[in-house]
Amino acid sequence: MNQNSSKIEANKENFRPYPTFDSSLSFFDPNKQSQNTPTKPKKEPFQNSCNQNSYIVNSPQKLVDGLLEKAKDKRNYCSITAEEFFNLSTLSLNYFCQSLKNEGANQVFQTVFSMKNLNSLYINLQINEITCLRFEKINYYCQNLTYLKLDLGSNNIAQENGIKSLEDCTKQLTNLKQFYIDLRWNNLTDSNCEQIGSSIKHLKQLDEVGLFLSHNKITSIGVNFICSELKHILMLKKLYFHLSQNKIDDNGAILLSQCIENLKYLQTVDISLQDNAISNQGSIELCKSVSNLEKISVANILLYMNQVRDYGILHSTKQFVQSANFRKLEQFFLEFRLKFREINPSKVYIECQEIVRQNILSNRQHALILTAYKKHITPMLDFQPQYQHWDILY
């Protein structure tokens, strides 16, 4: 299996649906929330998504020419002229695994950011051998954008100035309300996180932000760079921050918790920190900061494959379910996965179950997931399953 194929399989394995994005069609609806599973492809995507205001195209060879040619091939569904294309208000482009490289990606950016009526934009540039982003000749037209999602996963944008020019883009987006950027599998370091922090410091007007930075080389220093700017977006209502499989310890978790405490209007918090080096202290502080948010309605925190033990699991759970805001939650998801020999899973399960039972509301979606796995199985336990799983669901 080649490198690109392995990355594709890894992406499928680690897929978590992003808000407002249907991965099967490269189609997004700013007013629609995704479900827990990807939506099945529609049989006739052009018929439903091609009108005078919106357009969806998968993998054209050239940008404008390719878009128009694709429309002609689908003439039974719709047709579009160059003039109509540049007057679109909603655009979704899928260039997944097209080997565009830097030159092709930059051409895409230059073209779409010159569309004067565009207010919602999604671009999928996963696996395109991109090493450096350049946002050149961005004019005042892009100020109309209110929704922007850039999917740049599985490239190699880790060089010194790989994403530095992203700041040149975001500082022009004075009306942007929803910003999502996927930079998974890019070998990002802390210096790249400093560039990401610089790019969001101009977006004080944001309502929603999604930073998908899993599978990189980020430490707590990088988390600090991002959180030092993120905490100033005071009106933020939805935060999606995915940092799984990095090198983050308790310091990073505490810095993130301090950032969250400063964002008083947060209603949705989705944090993925699995497979890092976070222990009891970081887990408890993070859960405490989220549970103290007075307007919180959705809280999802993934902390499995860290160094959280019995004490951390119990007290992290208590921070949530015994807080005054717990009964306001419409959705609560907290997951731990630990080595079987490092905890007493039955004891933890019983205690957590009792805590949840005393504070739960039947009309809410709540889940506390405890999974214990055996890395070394003794002969006497060979008949037992490899995994033992406890779900507390109400």
UniProtKB/TrEMBL annotation:
Gene Ontology BP terms: nucleocytoplasmic transport
Keyword Zinc in record: no
Gene Ontology molecular functions: GTPase activator activity; small GTPase binding
Record bears the keyword S-adenosyl-L-methionine: no
Protein keywords: GTPase activation, Leucine-rich repeat, Repeat
InterPro entries, per database record: LRR_dom_sf (IPR032675), RanGap (IPR027038)
PANTHER family: RAN GTPASE-ACTIVATING PROTEIN 1
Name of the protein in question: Kinase domain protein
Protein's organism: Tetrahymena thermophila (strain SB210)
Source organism phylogeny: Eukaryota, Sar, Alveolata, Ciliophora, Intramacronucleata
